[in-house]
Specification:
10 strands; two-stranded antiparallel ribbon; binds flavin-adenine dinucleotide; 8-stranded mixed β-sheet; alpha+beta
């Protein structure tokens, strides 16, 4: 079954509970209005459904053959990419000064969902180019911006993001690629990178590599890393000293070429410094945080696609006296779990997008700083919660199909295979959880998360005050979940050793996602009751989530607070 972009649902999630509507009303986006945003989403939905989605299967089957240093993308991909870039989609949130459209990052996140639901292997390339644009715009010299930004923004050239080396994965500080000063003020890079997404391909005439490397006098660890822009083709038209050595065979996203890159076979690849020497991690963090939100959105995307497919199958497949399988309580439970987890993750990701916009466009420095902290808090949750549920939902999608789910023909299996990587790249979900508990929860002395919890409580109060019978126990269950999150947060903030904190990091992130996601779904139901928009379905979905998923909070709280000792003192098992 093919994908139809759920434009109305996406628009609803964007306008309610993400904060976009309030930001529009405050003039954060200048003259922009909801009609313009609706029109953009409508067009994106058409392109994703009609042009990209039909390429997903062929991409999976064809892969990216590699011969003589060259990668061939699947049939139809180059044409689709060229049309996509020509329509301006790559520069949607990029600065107008360099040919972009300057639209909200939150709207771009909604579009990224559609590109990736249509095909994750297609969508991941532009995700990295967009992140590269943001880093170059924030830290690049005027000369570099003039030379490279416009062509990256229009999508005429694509970008890559290059951290990983065999010994340096999660531990980026262990990287060894070397950069040396050249007489003309540029640098020469030697070394190799592994697992580089779209490191080589035939979609664009040039590929701009954003590479982390170490100068000879660099201090050890992440403090000694610098970021370099290394074009495949140099400004004078000659080929730079960088090449793809091989392409990986993978479990999923077969049409996204994952390359081993080699720098400096012939003496050194020409690179240009972005930002300051030894300060590359700061630049890379801009790039990574944008990409982390986008990868979270990939989780939403694959969950949406798997859910659509499972819903359609369940309505048609006949088994037993019940008629179609959609009538069986266990199948209903699976479908509701899929639909509600997808909606919860979408709401969190879009809210993160608006926080990002506020951090860039807020009215004064204090507003931007507060928004930056909100965005920093939500980004690991958006990335890890959404990609974890992407896998769970895609797995349920296989289950709904029964035996046919295991057979490649239906496509359900591809979603499951594709979904798996999003929890690994852009910082594994374990790293996201560690980041959340060690750096993000303590932000502003714990005030950033306290403010957030207060906002969740306001939604719960409104649910309880609504007296809508069909909400059932929604308010009470969400209240329990937020209570658990609050107690777990206080416990985390009071811990003296990071080991106990880290032992509960993953359950804490899940608790955060469940509590926040449940409240945001309830907020959407309230909005639908107020303004119309399928209120019965939204209330039922919020209720299902609160009464069946948010209730896991109590167990997760126990995991976090009481489970650390059994994690840390189990050497006998792990020997
Ligand atoms: C298809 C694909 C595309 C990719 N694209 C890119 C790309 O474009 N650019 C790029 O630079 N990289 C890319 N990567 C690399 C990817 O980001 C890394 O694989 C990932 O960051 C994990 O690093 P690793 O594989 O070395 O695993 P490891 O770091 O060895 O991790 C193994 C396990 O240990 C855990 N772990 C490690 N350290 C810690 C810690 N401190 N605390 C808690 N747990 C820890 C991890 O969570 C994980 O479960 C890609 C990888 C794949 C497979």
């Amino acid at each position: 079954m093919t994908y139809r972009a759920p434009v109305a649902d996406i628009a609803f999630a964007l306008k309610h509970t993400s904060g976009l509507r309030e930001a529009l009303a405050e003039g954060l986006y200048g003259e922009m209005d909801e009609d313009t945003i609706d029109a953009v989403l409508e067009e994106a939905g058409k392109f994703a459904s009609d042009v990209i989605a039909p390429l997903n299967r062929i991409g999976d089957q064809f892969g990216t053959p590699f011969k003589d240093g060259k990668v061939t993308t699947p049939p139809g991909w180059k044409e689709a990419y060229t049309a996509w870039a020509a329509a301006g989609w790559n520069g949607l949130a990029a600065p107008a000064e360099f040919g972009g459209q300057g639209l909200p990052h939150a709207v771009n996140a909604a579009c990224i969902e559609m590109w990736n639901a249509a095909s994750m292997a297609f969508g991941i390339g532009p995700v990295l180019t967009m992140a590269a644009i943001d880093a170059l715009d924030a830290y690049g010299s005027d000369t570099l911006k003039q030379q490279y930004l416009q062509k990256l923004v229009t999508g005429e050239w694509m970008g890559t993001m290059e951290l990983t080396e065999p010994q340096a994965g999660s531990d980026v500080g262990a990287l060894r690629t070397r950069a040396e000063h050249a007489a003309d003020g540029s640098y020469r890079l030697t070394g190799s990178k592994i697992f580089i997404t779209y490191g080589e391909h035939d979609l664009t005439s040039n590929i701009i590599h954003f590479v982390l490397a170490r100068l000879p006098d660099a201090p050890d660890g992440t403090k000694g890393i610098s970021l370099f822009l290394v074009p495949k083709v140099l400004p004078d038209g000659t080929r730079n000293d960088v090449r793809a050595h091989s392409v990986e065979h993978k479990m999923g996203i077969h049409a996204s070429p994952t390359c081993t890159m080699v720098y400096g076979d012939k003496g050194g690849a020409v690179g240009f410094l972005i930002g300051e020497e030894h300060k590359g991690m700061a630049c890379m963090f801009t790039m990574m945080n944008r990409a982390r939100l986008a990868v979270g959105v990939q989780g939403v995307a694959i969950a949406e696609r798997a859910t659509q497919q499972a819903m359609a199958y369940a309505r048609e497949r006949k088994q037993g006296a019940g008629g179609t399988i959609v009538h069986y309580p266990d199948v209903k439970r699976m479908l509701l779990t899929m639909r509600s987890l997808t909606g919860a993750a979408r709401a969190i990701c879009y809210a993160t997008g608006v926080a990002l916009d506020r951090s860039l466009r807020g009215k004064d420095a204090a507003a931007r700083q507060a928004a930056h902290q909100r965005c920093s808090l939500l980004t690991p949750v958006a990335k890890a919660f959404a990609t974890d549920i992407g896998i769970e939902v895609a797995s349920l999608g296989v289950q709904v199909h029964g035996g046919m789910g295991f057979i490649e023909e239906t496509g359900a299996a591809q979603h499951y295979r594709d979904a798996r990587i999003a929890a690994i790249y852009e910082g594994t979900n374990g790293i996201q959880a560690s980041d959340l508990v060690t750096r993000k929860v303590p932000l502003a002395g714990g005030n950033t998360i306290r403010l957030y919890l207060n906002e969740l409580r306001e939604i719960i109060t409104a649910v309880q005050a609504s007296n809508v019978e069909t909400f059932g126990q929604t308010g009470a269950r969400l209240n329990d979940a937020v209570d658990s999150l609050e107690r777990a947060t206080q416990w985390l903030l009071a811990q003296k050793t990071s080991e106990t904190t880290l032992a509960g990091a993953t359950p804490y992130l899940r608790l955060f996602g469940n509590a926040a996601g449940g409240c945001l779904l309830a907020g959407q139901a309230l909005a639908a009751l107020r303004e119309g928009g399928d209120a019965a379905a939204r209330v039922a979905l919020a209720r299902f989530f609160a009464e069946n998923i948010a209730v896991q909070a109590a167990g997760l709280e126990r995991n976090i607070i009481d489970g650390a000792a059994s994690v840390l003192n189990a050497e006998a098992v792990l020997q």
